Amino acid sequence: MENASTKFEIDKLNLFYGSFQALIDIDMTIYTNKITALIGPSGCGKSTFIRTLNRMNDLILGVKTTGLVKFDEMDIYAVDYDVINLRKKVGMVFQKPNPFPKTIFENIVYGPKVHGEKNRDKLQEIVEKTLKEVALWEEVKDRLHKPALGLSGGQQQRLCIARCLAVEPEVILMDEPTSALDPVATSKIESLLEELVEKYTIVIVTHNMQQAGRVSDYTSFFLSGKVLETDKTEIIFSNPTNKKTEEYITGRFG
Amino acid sequence: MIKKIKQGAFYGSIGLLAFLVMISLLSIMGYILFNGVGHINLEFLTKEPRSMGREGGIFSVIIGTLILTLFSVLIATPIGVAAAIFFTEYSAGKKWVGPIRFFTEILAGIPSIIFGLFGFAFFVIFLGLGWSILSGGLTLAIMILPTLIRATEESLKTVPMSYREGSLSLGATKLQTITRVIIPSCLPGILTGIILGVGRAIGETAAVMLTAGSNLRMPTSLLDSTRTMSVHLYTLASEGISLEKTFATASLLIIIVLIINTAANAITSKYIIKS
Fold it and tell me: Under CATH, which number does the domain B59-224 receive?
């Protein structure tokens, strides 16, 4: 593989929900300023995996994790690791757009405010900058102080991306960010990804093979809690090593 | 055809029942207001009672009612909201929460006189607070706590998990998530709990007599005994002091409860529109 710097280094990651093992011996490298797509059939563990990267699984009762997840060379599951700081650097966009029941403005400044930013001008600046980054500014600039829940699904999802960018993360995790959106909104978000990757490292879970093929640099194929294959996207889609990968990509199961 | 008749009969009978409920409620309210509103005048609202309430107004009683109710709600709200937050946000998977929640539910259904007896034995006698606003308010606070906890818990449960995830994923702490996202989005539910509590406190008679006494004079401190409108109403009626004043007091009580409810609804809907 090319000589890129790495953001995440995952080594023998295992995850258990009670007695059920959802992830088995995952090894993976996530490269800086690249888009890594995680594909695989439902229930294969890709969503569970992406949630280990910002320790979102901590919220679920009875989850046990073993192995190593290194972010910028630091083990994020170490006892004294600062989870708040991790989540500040590793943002997340969810499957269903989840803006807070607040105004558009308040949604964006939520993160900065939580991290202590009080300056009104600075907050205003953040709102404009992030909304422009997600190409939502022109659509909402006249109603920044209106409820975010009044936006369309696609706009809400771009707002959630902007909300995530407002914290100035290094990585953006996206858990099927377009599965609840129509094709037009989906293509907007996909073209957005291409711009965002200049500045951020992106990990995206997707059920949409074309999407993975279109947007990602690397692709990992998950099956039954294991990573069967990870490679450059063009290789995975043209010449996969594993027979199962080929079968899944060509639509023979999944 | 038969389906249509069944539909019609069903629609007709539930409509009739709803109508009966409306009629009986409206006639009770109407009867009391009809007999009482005419006797509410400036003197009634602003003067203190004379000769056991036969003459004069009920100013001190109105003040006593408002202070006692406000005091009990001020004590109960923070405790109730905190307890509900603890139950829903901080006690996932803890085994002892089940029994505590069960007892809270039982407490909500216990006759108020039991709370009155406890308040009398504990606050009035044991702590030596005597018949006072303090004893009465604390007793009422305990009495309305279960209602408040239930209402708050129910509204906390309706806050989608995705709000919590969204907040935490931005690097907010659990405390920030609770105070900045969760509580604001379930404020209407908390307010409903408070209104139910106010309703229960303001209408309480037996427990208040046992703990706050029935002093007709204007209270000057929290350690003074006072008489609430419900207690006054009961006394006027049971001792046959004055039917006019009884109805006037009852009418005013209805009006005050209506005002509190309307105000709370207005606040809630204004808040919902804003977000």
Answer: 1.10.3720.10
